[in-house]
Design brief:
Layout: H1 3-17, H2 45-82, H3 87-148
Helix pairs in contact: 2-3
């Protein structure tokens, strides 16, 4: 784009904007029910437990089945090498790399399961703290109401 072209585009844009005010607000659409929402993300302890359990089950099943696949690949690689096929060595190499990838996935699923178990416990503790704080406020309110004679 030439300099003259750039200046012309700027001038045209400025002429279009003269006399008008432009504003853009980024927000959620208004709730048609009239209620106020604090967000749409909700999770229950039951949901967290189900996700953690699923991650644990995936971890256990993948560990078992991936080991079967690795052992089959090693056996096939050995058989092919014994018959003089070069692909046997390549299959051994794949089986070795497979172990690294499996460990990464197993670590990730274990991390998910453990983190969700921790989160479940942490939120349960938060609930107890919040309930205690709110009951303390209610006790203070009751004391003020009694003092006012209500």
């Amino acid at each position: 784009m030439a300099w003259d072209e750039w200046e012309q585009l700027k001038s045209e844009a400025q002429q279009r904007q003269q006399g008008t005010t432009h504003m853009q607000l980024n927000q959620l659409p208004v709730d048609p029910g009239g209620g106020s929402t604090q967000g749409d993300l909700k999770v229950s302890q039951k949901d967290l437990a189900a996700i953690g359990d699923a991650a644990y089950e995936l971890n256990q099943a993948f560990e078992h089945f991936s080991d079967l696949a690795r052992m089959s690949s090693i056996a096939a690689g050995d058989g092919l090498k014994g018959e003089g096929y070069a692909i046997g060595s390549a299959l051994d190499h794949v089986a070795e790399r497979w172990v690294d990838q499996v460990r990464s996935l197993l670590d990730a699923t274990a991390h998910i399961s453990n983190h969700l178990d921790y989160t479940k416990g942490a939120h349960a503790g938060d609930e107890v703290y919040i309930a205690g704080t709110l009951s303390s406020i209610a006790t203070l309110d009751q004391g003020f109401d009694e003092r006012k004679g209500s």
